[in-house]
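This section describes the prediction task in plain terms. A model, or a person checking by hand, is given the sequence of a single protein chain and must write out its three-dimensional structure as a string of tokens. No templates, partner chains or ligands are provided. The sample shown here is typical of the held-out split.
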Amino acid sequence: MYIPAHFRAEELAPLQQLMRDYSFATLVSTGEDLLPVATPLPFVVDVAPGHYGTIRAHMALGNPQWRTFREDREVLVIFQGPHAYITPSWYKQPLSVPTWNYATVHAYGRPRILKDASVLYKHLSSLVQVHEAQFATPWPFEQLPEQYVEKMMRGVVGFEIEITRLEGKFKMSQNRPPNERARVAEELYKSPDPASVATATFVEDLLKRSEDKDSQA
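The expected answer:
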């Protein structure tokens, strides 16, 4: 991924946080023909094991992508964070062009299929718990009949990826003066689009972090 210095994100905690907040990500791998294959999947992000953490997911048994997995071949998982269009009319500098603000994390690693049924069950349970937590009465996955769960599990392939490298790009107007970055956040907050509001928060947080760093220098 092309990452200009302005937008490079290297601190581990914010990268992992984005992966957790935007865990519906795209898995990209290549087959023997070297053609890329991609599948959008919900991931569970575990900060351990490994320096960068481990991510887990599953796909339908009928999806041929899992057959592209090789121990000596990396795959890529793209976590797409908030993003929004930025109009140059928000800038004081008249000679400006439109752009797009966005945050994304690319995670690389070698996938390992979860062959142990108990490990796959634990992954599925964790995934359900993460997403059911938003409801007042979470759906009781653990109370499903055992035979039914076993049947459903035979129809999926679970896998985990210990992350070997992470690339983070937070393109949030850091190449603009602080007053223009603040204006971008202010205007984005006015949008009815939740993604624009989330982008505004991202712009604002990075601006505050930059100002705090400058004050301590």
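For orientation: Residues 80 and 104 are 5 Å apart (CA to CA).
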